[in-house]
Amino acid sequence: MLGLRHLETLDAIREAGSLVEASERLHVTQSALSHQLRDIEGRLGVSLLNRRTRPVRFTVAGERLLALADQVLPLMRQGLRDIRALAEGQSGRLHLAIECHACFQWLMPALDVFREQWPQVELDLSAAFAFAPVPALLRGDLDMVVSSDPVEHEAVLWQPLFSHELVLAVSRNSSLAEREFVEPADLVEETLITYPVERDRLDIFTAFLQPANIEPAAQRKTELTPMMIQLVAAGRGVAALPNWAISEYLDHGLIRSLSLGERGVWRTLYIGIRAEEAEVPYLKEFIQTARQQSMAGLEGIRGA
Amino acid sequence: MLGLRHLETLDAIREAGSLVEASERLHVTQSALSHQLRDIEGRLGVSLLNRRTRPVRFTVAGERLLALADQVLPLMRQGLRDIRALAEGQSGRLHLAIECHACFQWLMPALDVFREQWPQVELDLSAAFAFAPVPALLRGDLDMVVSSDPVEHEAVLWQPLFSHELVLAVSRNSSLAEREFVEPADLVEETLITYPVERDRLDIFTAFLQPANIEPAAQRKTELTPMMIQLVAAGRGVAALPNWAISEYLDHGLIRSLSLGERGVWRTLYIGIRAEEAEVPYLKEFIQTARQQSMAGLEGIRGA
DNA sequence: ATCCCAACATGAGATAATCTCACCTTATAA
DNA sequence: TTATAAGGTGAGATTATCTCATGTTGGGAT
Predict the structure, then answer these.
(1) pLDDT-based confidence at A304, cuts 50/70/90?
(2) Which of A15, A113, B237, B287 has the greatest number of CB atoms lying within 10 Å of its CB?
């Protein structure tokens, strides 16, 4: 009934002082404004302005609508500006989940870089161990997932980040310490230390032990990679970790690492986003930053 | 482009949780909302909400528009309420001008009554001696005029208030004091005391002296009716005034009053408003109040 | 697995809102 | 009085929006 157009018209008439000039500013005919005023005055049942004076004179009702226009139009303009910024990717949302515990290592610096470059993007971080990432992406709970298990879906775009070898960390005193690689059967006597997630999401099981139908002697869980390393070093068990995640501990000589099987178990980490957002600038740039940071972390690691 | 309808739609969808229920609330089909969203998302270049969740989930852009709706819609609603009040005559404007100096006498109580009954009406008062009231009415400078000289105009509605006699106030010691009436020629030796306005607006000239081509010996001007009375009582001149304006002074015996000519000069006071506003409730009521107050002021006056 | 249901999307045509065009009326000044 | 500038108005064109009929999709039940 009373629309923004009417407020804009009244505003223009006030600025212009006449229907003719206002119509020029609004790029419509004077007739359009005349009809518009007639309509709205009829609907509201009040006269809004006296067209016979120069400049035109607003009635009390007209003044009230002008006051309304002064309140509403700037809000609308600002709102549209904000939406435009969102549309152009100046601002937006990046809710990121990682399915990979050790990834924090290179993720943190990447996040720091990103936050500085895209301050308007709302950044949020969660672990994706308890839920399936693809539905969460499609649902809009997440905008990006880091995973080594890219579940194919037409609406999800997976982009490889880097490849790494999953290695077995053992104590330097372990009987396995001098081996080049281990076979699944070598673990029947060992305690396996893992992150506390379901078995199906642990590559050591899915890619190494289960195919050989081998079960480790025991399983122990911890969230923290350094704690895992300490337990391994203390001879309390063995752990399967990405090679880059343990490189600094190898350098200290605390532990040793072996390939899983003769050819090793290799994994690739992927970043997944909604396919429709493939061109969102800050997402593209985040992926690039993530690649750089993770590559930097890989430098000098054997086999990487 | 982005209209209030879109904001209302988004608001309804948020409240309802789904397009289907929102469409019911808005009394349109679900299809309409779907098209509407599609259009606006296309125009803005952003997705506003994810329809696949239950309830639907808004994107960052959608949330921004909802925030906009929360700001704008209440303002619009309040604005419309105010306009409705204006339209129904609950509130409005009454800029009143009087062409009649002595009228303040009964006008003041009328204004007091009115202010109490119509507190939302913006009341303003001015004297209409220096300008023509009809153009001012039509221009919107004024909303009501009290005048004894109703200039006919199709867009102006004049309503009679009351009639009174214009009488000549003279000193009780004047040589005219015992006369029933005066002739124009009787004033050639007198000083005429008037309000300080142009001659054409003084009935004593237009209706009495000028037709007889008579000029008083002198003219003296003052704004204040009581001062006029004092000057008359002191024998410094004579003054033409409405009978009701001097009734209390007659009672005190300070002065005497004579008719102007054998039949007297009678005037009628009119209230003029724009014809289009004839039905505005507070104007109608003001006129009624004015009539009552002026009638009350006339009570017990001879010849009234 | 497959079917069903509820919800949303889509295309075409109907409807309504809004504009333009052409011409008329009114106020003001030369 | 006559120009002239500003507004008003009716009819028809345009554009926006809606409805109707139907298609698609995701999730749960059989």
Answers:
(1) very low
(2) B237
DSSP for residue B207? I
B87/A57 CB distance under 8 A = no
What pLDDT is recorded for position A297?
Answer: 64
- In single-letter form, the type of residue at position A173 comes to N
Percent of chain A with pLDDT over 90: 51
pLDDT for the residue numbered B91: 76
DSSP string for A18-55: SHHHHHHHHTS-HHHHHHHHHHHHHHHTS--EETTSSS
Instruction: Tell me if chain B has a CB within 8 Å of the CB of A120.
Output: no
Question: Does the beta carbon of B73 lie under 8 angstroms from any beta carbon of chain A?
Answer: no
User: Nearest-CA neighbor of B303 among B205, B182, B181?
Assistant: B181
Q: What is the pTM of this model?
A: 0.70
**Structure tokens, B62:** 């959608």
Lookup: nucleotide whose C1' is closest to A43 CA: C17
- Beta strand A49-50 with A57-58: parallel, antiparallel or unpaired? antiparallel
Q: What is the pLDDT of residue A303?
A: 44
Q: For position B304, what pLDDT does the model report?
A: 38
Beta partners for residue A259, in sequence order: A167, A181
User: For B140 and C27, how far is CA from C1' in angstroms?
Assistant: 15
- Compute how many other C-beta atoms are within 10 angstroms of the C-beta atom of residue B210: 15
List, in order of start, the domains of chain B with CATH numbers.
Answer: 4-87 (1.10.10.10), 93-162+267-298 (3.40.190.10), 164-266 (3.40.190.10)
CA A116, CA A119: separation in Å to the nearest integer?
Answer: 6
Q: Do A61 and B140 touch (CB under 8 A)?
A: no
Mutate which of B51, B63, B65, B72 to disrupt the A interface (most A C-beta within 10 Å)?
B72
pLDDT, position A135: 85
- Cα–Cα distances in angstroms (integers) from residue A255 to residues A6, A159, A236, B201, in the given order: 76, 33, 12, 114
Asked if residue B272 lies in contact with residue B100, where contact means CB atoms within 8 angstroms, the answer is no
For residue B277, give every residue at least 6 positions away whose Cβ sits within 8 Å of its Cβ, in sequence order, or none: B143, B283
Confidence category of residue A295, pLDDT binned at 50, 70, 90: confident
Query: How far apart (Å, rounded) are the C-alpha atoms in residues A65 and A43?
Result: 14
Smallest Cα–Cα separation from B276: which of A39, A55, A59?
A59
Mind listing the pLDDT tens digit for each residue in A20-73? 999 999 999 999 999 999 999 999 999 999 898 889 999 889 999 999 999 999
Q: Which residues pair with A283 in a beta bridge?
A: none
Q: Between chain A and chain B, how many beta carbons pairs sit less than 8 Å apart?
A: 97
Which of B43, B64, B141, B276 is the mutation pick for testing A, counting most A CBs within 10 A? B64
